[in-house]
Design goal:
By secondary structure, the chain is mainly beta. It is 2% helix and 44% strand. Among the domains are: 7-112; 114-234 and 449-479, no CATH class; 497-620, Jelly Rolls (Sandwich), CATH 2.60.120.200. Strands 40-41-50-43-46-47-48 form a 7-stranded antiparallel β-sheet. Strands 4-3-6-7-9 form a 5-stranded antiparallel β-sheet, with no helix packed on it. Strands 15, 16, 17, 18 and 19 form a 5-stranded antiparallel β-sheet that branches.
């Protein structure tokens, strides 16, 4: 397909994989792209490329190329799974990351450093500007296809039936031919299996000039990536008409719709799923929410369960009960009831925790919203997988609007309206504070704007730029599944790790980090963020206390049937190759059966004492 609006081919490279033994070399196509509107008058780039995969860095994994090169052959390993690109042109810096496709190609979109980059402007549309408005536009992504889809808007015109797609690895963008029927506002957009996204529910704002009277829809439309259009001949019939609902993707690939407002405007307590296999919606066999809610936050957690929090009841007051749906949504468990301010937001953290803003760590005795705003408006709370809560340092102000945007390193962004306008803060999961980071974009998003996390290191939102609704993107990181952590974790700081509870120190929560390293008590856990590993070697320096348990995914090593060799402290080594795991201390070793496939890495406290880990080094190794 030819380049669409907003994309320029910067550099085409050939990566020549050097196979082992008699295996032939594998040549991959790698193309670097620049968003057109961010690269005007840009001089030649010097680009550092790093091949990432389940292997360590070597002379074959990095190369520096000029931005005007063509057809350069780079001898990257044939196990390359993604490519990290860092570019510079004068004072401007660029970064991007792209994954290898099944065909072996890698596309990398380079984003400017500290800049909100226009990916699509309404005026790029082939006819009248789209989006026509920012209110009511639904935005979602396909992680598999690396595609963003923006749909509809709260307008009584035919613009409510229009949509635009943006390829997140190339910057290509175009309006969807023929749009969708009917027009929609306040719908949801989620991935639906391989090669498709589904736009569900919402209201049809074209049926009434009074937009407040637009009825909710009981249908969904499927967008097929390979056809670049909606299937207008086969709408999905929903079980319940709903709008302003929450949505998430379940572990089996189904889309889950949660709550929302029904035909009479009353809050819904029903949930339903849309199957990617037969494109059918169902409510049979699914749970009913403990509390009906409009605009709930719905988050799929690491273990597959679904967190449902916040939102409002039919009278517009915040819902205080937090509940967790099972991975198949057949059961719900209300775990806690907390004081929640009218302005609130939630974000998922690795390991199954959730952080809440405008959320008190306990129930409130308030009977009205003004009291809740005063008591919980600045509150920040860490909500554990069990439903237990830890109060974190409060905000310096009570936002008049707020949204949390998922991000790498368990450090979501807080987009808020403060006393002096827009604010963008970043969460530090080890101090529990939201603070202004050093890498702010030059334009801050509005918390009321539609937004979506495109990968752990980037997000996009729709904003009004000089009177034109524009899709903007901002990349702050390139951390991914195959990232290498060169510096040992916990040696200097706890960056690239996250605790399973608020790390307020051993006396309070059983886990903390200070100048001595990571301190763990029994059951407390710290996980490496974003990355996954196959063959690896871990080196763990323990300065005091019992040896920690190492968790590779759901499998535990260092206790039970696979203990560490005798002794305390010192350097521990865990080596994994295929499904064999060897634990070593000094000259002694133990070998056990390990998991298959790529896994996460975590350390967990064991025994009765406090374990202090001074450093954790993770090295990848090719099978």
């Amino acid at each position: 397909m030819s380049l669409g609006h907003g994309s320029a081919l910067c550099l085409l490279l050939l990566l020549s994989g050097c196979g082992s033994g008699a295996e032939p070399d594998v040549v991959h196509r790698v193309a670097l792209h620049l968003p057109e509107r961010c690269a005007e008058n840009l001089g030649p780039l010097s680009i550092q490329l790093e091949a990432l995969g389940d292997f360590e860095a070597s002379s074959l994994t990095s190369e520096t190329v000029a931005g005007d090169g063509r057809g350069i052959e780079l001898r990257f390993p044939d196990g390359t799974q993604s490519v990290d690109a860092q570019g510079a042109a004068g004072r401007s810096k660029w970064q991007g990351i792209g994954d290898r496709t099944p065909g072996g190609d890698v596309d990398v979109l380079l984003w400017p450093d500290r800049s909100a980059c226009p990916l699509w402007r309404g005026s790029d549309a082939d006819k009248s500007p789209f989006p026509a408005v920012t209110d009511g536009v639904a935005v979602g992504i396909s992680e598999r296809e690396r595609l963003l889809l923006a749909v509809g808007g709260l307008t009584p015109s035919s613009d409510a039936a229009r949509a635009v797609w943006i390829h997140l690895d190339t910057g290509e963008a175009a309006e969807v031919a023929d749009g969708l029927l009917p027009g929609r506002a306040f719908a949801s957009v989620t991935e639906l299996g391989k090669g498709a996204l589904v736009v569900a529910g919402g209201v049809d704002p074209t049926v009434s000039q009074d937009l407040t009277l637009s009825p909710p829809l009981d249908s969904a439309a499927v967008f097929y990536v390979d056809e670049w259009r909606f299937d207008r001949n086969r709408p999905i019939q929903l079980s319940v008409a709903r709008a302003r609902h929450g949505a998430a993707v379940l572990s089996d690939g189904s889309t889950l719709l949660v709550g929302g407002s029904g035909p009479t405007g009353v809050a819904l307590s029903t949930v339903e799923t849309i199957s990617p296999t037969d494109l059918a919606a169902k409510v049979a066999g699914l749970a009913t929410l403990t509390r009906a809610r409009i605009w709930p936050t719905v988050l799929t957690l690491d273990d597959g369960s679904v967190f449902v929090g916040g939102g409002t009841d039919s009278t517009g007051h915040p819902v205080h009960v937090l509940e967790w749906l099972s991975p198949d949504a057949s059961d719900t468990t209300p775990k806690t009831s907390l004081g929640i301010a009218p302005v609130h937001a939630f974000a998922a953290l690795p390991g199954g925790s959730v952080v809440g803003v405008g959320v008190c760590a306990s129930e409130s005795s308030c009977s009205d919203d003004a009291c809740l705003a005063a008591e919980c408006g600045t509150a920040v709370t860490w909500i554990r997988e069990s439903g237990a809560t830890d109060a974190l340092p409060p905000l310096d102000f009570a936002p008049s609007a707020a949204a949390l945007i998922d991000a790498s390193d368990a450090a979501p962004w807080l987009s808020a309206e403060g006393p002096n306008g827009r604010v963008l803060l970043r969460f530090d999961p080890w101090s529990g504070r939201f603070a202004v980071p050093a890498d702010l974009p030059d334009r801050l998003p509005s918390p009321l704007s539609p937004h979506v996390t495109t990968d752990p290191g980037a997000f996009a939102w729709i904003d009004d730029v000089d009177g034109t609704p524009t899709v903007l993107g901002f990349r702050h990181d390139v951390r991914g599944v195959f990232t290498r952590d060169i510096t040992p974790l916990f040696l200097v700081d706890a960056t690239h790790a996250v605790a399973d509870r608020a790390p307020l120190g051993v006396p309070q929560t059983g886990i903390g980090f200070d100048g001595a390293g990571l301190s763990l008590t029994k059951g407390a856990r710290a996980s490496v963020t974003e990355t996954r590993y196959g063959a690896l070697t871990l080196e763990i320096t323990v300065t005091s206390g019992p040896a920690p348990i190492v968790r590779l995914g759901g499998a535990a090593f260092g206790a039970g049937d696979c203990p560490w060799p005798n002794g305390d402290g010192g350097t521990l080594t865990l080596t994994r190759s295929n499904q064999s795991v060897t634990l070593s201390r000094d000259e002694a070793s133990t070998t056990c059966t390990g998991p298959s496939g790529l896994t996460t890495v975590a350390l967990e406290g064991a025994g009765d004492g406090v374990t202090v880990v001074r450093s954790l080094t993770v090295r990848r190794a090719k099978e």
